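Weekend entry, working from home. Most of the wet-lab plans are on hold until the incubator is repaired, so I used the time to fold the two sequences that have been sitting in the queue since the last round of cloning. Logging both here for the record. First:
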Amino acid sequence: MNYIGSKFIKLSSWIQEEVKKVVGNDLSQKVFCDIFAGTGIVGRTFKKEVKQVISNDLEHYSYVLNKNYIENHEEIQGKEKYIEELNNLPLIDNGFIYQNYCMGSGSERQYFGDENGKKIDTIRTKIKEWYDNKEIGDNLYYFLLASLLESADKIANTASVYGAFLKHIKKSASKDLILQPAHFIENDNSHQVFNMDSNELIKEISGDILYLDPPYNQRQYSSNYHMLNTITKYDSFAPKGKTGLREYTRSDYCKKGEVHNSFENLIKNAKFKYIFLSYNNEGLMSEKDVKNIMEKYGKYGLEIKEYQRFKADKTENRNHKANKTYEYLHILKKD
C-alpha cells in the first residue's frame, strides 16, 4: 500500500538484523510487540520467527490489516469462493462511498471512479451482511476486509495519501477494481491484535522485544488515511469540507508540546527487556532528546541507516536535492 513511513523492504530486513544483533538469532521463545503497527510490515517480518506477535494501532484500517496479516495464522477453507462471489455481484449505487466520494453522485469529490466507488460499496455491504448473519467468522471477515482495503487502495484517485483527491482520473484509478486476496503467513503460533492508544495498552501487556515506530512529525495519519477508515468502519457520518474528512483524534506524538512526555511514559511503563525505536532525522524529537529519555531506563545504543525518502509525488523527487533521509534505530536494554 501507499503508506507514509512504511518499512517495506527498505528497512524491515535491516531492523530485523539489528534486533538479532542485540537479542540473539534465536527468537523462537520471544514475544515481539509492534505497538505503532501501521500496515504491520515489521510485525509480519517477525511473525515466523517469534513465539507471538502483539500488534497495535489506533487507526482502524491498521487494525483490520493486522487482524488479517498478524492474527490470522491458519488456513481459511473456501476463502477463494468468497473472493470470486464478491467480484461478481451486481453493483449498488446508493452506498456511502459512491454517494460521498465519487463525482457521479454529485458529491464534487473524486477519490474513486464512479464504477469503482459503487463496487467498493457493493463488496463492503455484502461482507457486512455475511458477518452480521454469522455466515462468516472473524478470521474470514478480516481477510475479506483487508483484501478490499488493499484492492481499493490500488485504484484510488490520489497522488498517494488521502489528504486530497485529483481533479482528473489518473491512469491507475481508471482501471476496474478487482478484489485480490490479502494472503497472510500461516504458522502454528497465535498472535494478538489491538486497536488502542499505545500509552494505555503498554500498561496491560508484557513481553521481550518492544518495537516502536510512532508518528515523528505533525502529519496526522487519521486525516491522510481517512478514506481507509471509512471503508473499514463503514459507518454513517457527515463528511466535512472539500476533502470529506471524518472526525479524528490528534496523536500526542504529533504535538511538539506533548511528544516528549508521552514517549517517556511509554518507555517507563514498558514491561519489555529490549526496546527498539525507529525515528528519523526530521522528527519532533531530536536524537539527543531520545537519548536523554531512553538512557534513564537502561543501556542505550544507536544505529543509523540512510535511505530514499518518501514522496507522495515521485515526479517531484527527480529534481529534489534532499531526497535522502536517515532512519535512527534507538536501542534500549532496560534495567
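Second, folded right after the first finished:
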Amino acid sequence: MTEHEINAYIMIRRKLAVSRADVARCLGISRPTASLVCESLLAKNLIQECGKGKSTGGTTPTLLRAASSQFNIIGIDFGYSNKMTAVLLDGAGNITDEKEAIFLPDDIDSIYQCAQILVQQLAGNKKIDGIALALSAIIDERSREVLKSVNTLFCNKNFLPSLKKIFPYPLFISNRSRSAAISEAFGGAADKVNDFALISLGKSVGGAFWCNGGLFSGTTSSAGEIRNLRISDGTRLEDLLSKENIERISRERFVNGCAEALNLITDIMDFKLLVLSGRFADFGVDFAPLLQAKLCNNNVTVKQSRFGRFSAARGSAFQMAEFLIKNNNSN
C-alpha cells in the first residue's frame, strides 16, 4: 500500500474522512488523486461505499466507511486487579463480542490460562489477525516495549515471550489509559472532540491527554502518569481510588477527593471534556454528574466512557489494526 492509501484508510476508519472530497482535503491532495486512492482501497476490500451524503451545491457525495470484514482482532485489558476484559473487534472498529474472566493475581499460570480461555472463547472458528494487550505500563511509542510498570509482571522479560508461545498470532502492546482515550476518541464518548482528558481506573489509576486531535505522549512516553498526584490531606490519587479506600470512606468524601484531584488537572490542562473510563463504571450513572458539580471550572463536562470496562481492550485492538496496515501485515 502507498502512504496515501494507508493514511486515507486510517482517516476513513476513524470517520475523519467520509467522502472522496474529505480524503482530498485531509491529505492535501487533488480530488482525482483522492479518487484513485479510494478506488484502490475499494479494490482491496479495505473500505466500502455506504450511501449518499448531503449535497453542498455540487454533486451528491458517496459516503465511505471501513469494511468490517477485513480484520478480527482480540483486545485484552490486563489492567484490573483480578479480572481481564476482552473484546473481538472487526475492521470497522465494532465490538462483535466481549468477555470477562477472573484470575488469581499472584499466580502467573492463572493469568496465562485466563488470557488463553478468553482468546479461545472469542476466536471460535474465526481467523484472528492479532491480539492486542492493554497494560498498566509506560510503553515506548516506537519500539512498543515496556519501560516501566507498577505491575512487576509486565516488566518480567519472560512475560511477553511466554504469551507469544501460547498464542500463534501477532502481539501488540499498549498503555491502557491511552488505549481507552483512542477508543473514546473514535466512536466513543469523545468522538470528534479535539481536546479532552481521560482518567482510567483499574488496579491503578492513569490518565491520557488528547490534544489537538491526537494523544500527547511526552518526551519519554510517560505523559498522563497521575497516580502520585496528592490532594490537600496528602492522600495520593491512587490510594484515594483504591478498592480498600472506597469501601472504607463515605461516598461524599470520595467524590470530594476525586473532585479536588481533578481540579488540579483542569487548572493545568485547558480542556472542556473529562472522560471517566474503566472501573469508574462501577460507581453508578450518577457519579459523573456528581463529580461535575464539584469541579471549580464550570466549563468542564464530565462523561462516563461509552465502552466502560472494555474501553482499553477496544482501544488497544483498534490501534493494532492500524499498526498491521502500516507494517504491511494485513491481507
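Plan for Monday: verify the second prediction. The CA atoms of residues 49 and 64 lie 5 Å apart.
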